[in-house]
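A protein record pairs a chain with a discrete description of its three-dimensional fold. The shape at a given residue is found from the number at the same position. Here is what such a record looks like in full:
>
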Amino acid sequence: MSRFSETLTDHFQAPRHAGCMEAADAIGIAGTPGQGRCLILYLKVSDGRVARAQFEAHGCGVTIACGSVLTELVEGRSPEECKPLNADQLIAALDGIPPDKQDCAGFAIRALQNVLLQFQSKNAVS
């Protein structure tokens, strides 16, 4: 029996929406680029919905899988609808994460919270 679910393994081996996004509407970072684990989340918002999400991740396979599944979960939602997403939902979407790696889901959610804060501050009505 594998330590990782088939879904998690698939997202690690073939991550969805991986790579830098040019002209992103907002960028959220968890960690520090070049200094250990890092996840950068990019959002493009159109007509009040996340039209595209991409990520870059440096770290373990679970961190990469969390970034991948997170992009799938946010696309099509409004930024407001993305706010309640949490680590448990990422874990469920990956059909489980081993207990010693569950902090990776929280790490990805931190990047989401940061990108949403940046989007909100850039689009605040004066």
Notes: The two ends are 56 Å apart (CA to CA). The longest helix spans residues 103-122. The mean pLDDT is 95. The CA atoms of residues 17 and 54 lie 5 Å apart.
